[in-house]
Amino acid sequence: MSIFSIALLKKSTASAMTIPNPTVKFALRAGTALKRSPLPSRWASLNSGEFNKMKNAKPLLIALIAALLGGCATLPPTSTQSADIAKYRFVVIEATPTVSSISGSGGNLSTREINPANLIEGLLLKIGLVRVATVASGTQEQALLLRWGISGRRDIPLVGYTQEVTILLLDAHSQQSVYKCTAEGFGSTEADDIREAITSCLSGLK
């Protein structure tokens, strides 16, 4: 996961504002303020060359801090499983809308998208579960019902925030929980957060 290609604070689909700076731009969520202090008086004695050296070092320092904080940003996923997933063949996953986020730096913007249901389908297909629209007669004991949702958000000072998802797999016949997990994601955008969180959440499924 890299957070060097964009500003430290992520941009959501909600409106965002960009604070101009000669060397680095911060993409801020609406309602977030960037506090800027006046230059210390001793800087006034620096010649232009010295000042530019100090100014150009600022983005490198910010990137280093972001790397240190972002590298351990997410908490480990948690999960509980009560049955062997190998006994199931089918899974019902409700359709979800596509999540879109805008990211960018230096005036260049790009859109990141994810469809959670499609991502979950692909991850479960790897372990042999086939997505179906409904549970067919006679297959209830081989089918699972999947529920998922964004269940939280955790702020990380100076870096941004993580998003948390919770996923629940139910036995279609007994309606009992087979697998439940919670995980965080931290990426360049909210779409990346959700992608990372879902992938992490289902990594413990056996």
Major sheet details: 6 strands, mixed
Number of helical regions: 3
In the predicted model, the low-confidence regions spanning at least 5 consecutive residues are 1-45
Name the helix and strand elements from N-terminus to C-terminus, one letter apiece.
Answer: EEHEEEEHEEEEH
CATH third-level topology of the largest domain = Double Stranded RNA Binding Domain
Q: What is the structural class? A: alpha+beta
The mean pLDDT is 77
Task: Describe the secondary structure blueprint for this structure.
Layout lengths: L15 E4 L6 E4 L18 H23 L7 E4 L8 E4 L5 E7 L2 E7 L1 H10 L4 E3 L10 E14 L3 E12 L5 E9 L4 H13 L4
Parallel strand pairs: 4-7, 4-8
Antiparallel strand pairs: 1-2, 3-10, 5-6, 8-9, 9-10
Helix pairs in contact: 2-3
Describe the structure in your own words:
It is a single chain. The protein is of the alpha+beta class and 206 residues long. The protein has two domains: 16-70, no CATH class; 78-202, Double Stranded RNA Binding Domain. 22% of the residues lie in helices and 33% in strands. The protein is built from three helices and ten strands. The chain has helices at 48-70, 116-125, 190-202; strands spanning 16-19, 26-29, 78-81, 90-93, 99-105, 108-114, 130-132, 143-156, 160-171, 177-185. The strands form three sheets. It has a six-stranded mixed sheet with strand order 3-10-9-8-4-7. The longest helix is centred in the N-terminal third of the chain and has 23 residues, at 48-70. It starts with 15 loop residues before the first strand and ends with a helix.
